[in-house]
Amino acid sequence: MENPRTFHVKSFGCQMNVYDGERMAELLQAQGLSAAPAGSEADLVVLNTCHIREKAAEKVYSDIGRLRREDGTRPMIAVAGCVAQAEGAEISRRAPSVDIVVGPQAYHRLPELVARAREGGRALDTDMPVQSKFGVLPPRRRQGTSAFLTVQEGCDKFCTYCVVPYTRGAEVSRPWAAVVEEARALVDGGAREITLLGQNVNAWEGEDETGAVRGLDGLIRTLDALPGLERIRYTTSHPNDMREGLIRAHGEVGKLMPYLHLPVQSGSSRILKAMNRSHTAESYLDVLARVREVRPDIAISGDFIVGFPGETEADFEDTLKMVAAVNYAQAYSFKYSPRPGTPAADMEDQVPPDVMDERLQRLQALLAEQSLAFNRATIGKRTQVLIERSGRKPGQMLGKSPWLQSVHVETDAAIGSVIEVDIVSAGPNSLGGTIAAAPPTAVAA
Ligand code: 5AD
Ligand code: SF4
């Protein structure tokens, strides 16, 4: 096979995959390859895959088939991410055109794997090496206004439905200095917002310069002092790791945005127990009450699974009650998908697909109502919008509110600036605003 000169990385699934995709791209660029705008034009295509649900995992096989060009040739194909980790050599058996299989903890070795594949061999690396990939990857390059920064990976919680502990490995926190340095590099490269990422990001822990052990709140407070950085977010969190310091940070840290993604999965404590979530519906509501006490305007977002094995109509109604009690600004809901190797896949009382469909529809209808109401409640408010890119219409820019809503506004404000906007309209997915009139000249009191 020819030496690839161009590459294209396509990431599926969560934000951590988007981050990994960026780092793979930076690595390949450091090797002298250049980015192609589409897979069809690239010599090397990296499919950075997701294994969380069956549908996501199966998608990779149809994508591989689509990479064949009209003249019958194909690019060099690498399957990265969580499907690579979970299915390993099985991928090359099912899809012989795959040249490289590389797991989420081994992608710093991509250049060696490309070299091996060029010599005609199949290259597989799904190790979880002791030496972290982060120590080897090239420094961050310029990213957009809003940047991701993975600070924590893996999960030790072993919820009974979830593949993450198997595909991403044990919980590991990146060291304090590495994270602060990367945040600085991102801000120097133009980032105005940083979203700290981890499968259990609020379990992050590290020693600061003085040797003191700090939690995620300590990191957030340090980033708050970074000149040029305007906004800090973090995702995804586990309810049991919402420690007091982090909750307090929501009331005290100016740059920490009023948004919390806190998955609950079910409103039935019986199902939560079967899921091995190690929290109850009540303890989850309790955490949210404490967060809302310090930050009353916080937007709450969540994840839900309907149709977990054994879920009865009464359990599901508890989920609807939980949703009614919380009032979500945003939420993601899924039908339970049995994953190979997870305990729940072997449980009795799997819920029939039509029951799952019906429950998902009811849940999504309620969640959609809530998020529309949340968006509508911002009409008439003046708020700060971080401009991220130009909109579809000429003269229009697209930005984000503090509550992570997309806002369209006619303005000539530059990308990366934070402007005051009056919200005038709201739909299910975005808000419309106008530039706020200059505030009246302050009169000395
Ligand atoms: N089936 C359906 N949804 C799942 N999730 C994780 N595993 C499964 C599964 N087996 C959902 C959870 C999690 C989100 C990232 O994906 O809601 O929070
Ligand atoms: Fe999966 Fe549960 Fe860990 Fe989240 S906390 S990654 S759902 S095992």
Automatic annotation (TrEMBL):
UniProt-listed PROSITE patterns: MTTASE_N, MTTASE_RADICAL, RADICAL_SAM, TRAM
Main location per the UniProt record: cytoplasm
Gene3D superfamilies: Methylthiotransferase, N-terminal domain, tm_1862 like domain
CDD domains registered for this protein in UniProt: Radical_SAM
Gene Ontology molecular function, alphabetical: 4 iron, 4 sulfur cluster binding; metal ion binding; tRNA-2-methylthio-N(6)-dimethylallyladenosine(37) synthase activity
Catalytic activity, reaction form: N(6)-dimethylallyladenosine(37) in tRNA + (sulfur carrier)-SH + AH2 + 2 S-adenosyl-L-methionine = 2-methylsulfanyl-N(6)-dimethylallyladenosine(37) in tRNA + (sulfur carrier)-H + 5'-deoxyadenosine + L-methionine + A + S-adenosyl-L-homocysteine + 2 H(+)
Subcellular location(s) per record: Cytoplasm
Domain annotation MTTase N-terminal: ranges: 5-119
Binding-site positions, [4Fe-4S] cluster 1: C14, C50, C82
Cofactor note: Binds 2 [4Fe-4S] clusters. One cluster is coordinated with 3 cysteines and an exchangeable S-adenosyl-L-methionine.
Class of the enzyme per the UniProt entry, highest EC level: transferase
Cofactor names: [4Fe-4S] cluster
Ligand binding ([4Fe-4S] cluster 2): C155, C159, C162
Keyword list, A-Z: 4Fe-4S, Cytoplasm, Iron, Iron-sulfur, Metal-binding, S-adenosyl-L-methionine, Transferase, tRNA processing
GO cellular component: cytosol
Residue ranges occupied by any TRAM domain in the UniProt entry: 376-437
Family: Belongs to the methylthiotransferase family. MiaB subfamily.
Subunit structure: Monomer.
Function: Catalyzes the methylthiolation of N6-(dimethylallyl)adenosine (i(6)A), leading to the formation of 2-methylthio-N6-(dimethylallyl)adenosine (ms(2)i(6)A) at position 37 in tRNAs that read codons beginning with uridine.
Name the record gives this protein: tRNA-2-methylthio-N(6)-dimethylallyladenosine synthase
Organism: Sphingomonas parva
Gene coding for it: miaB
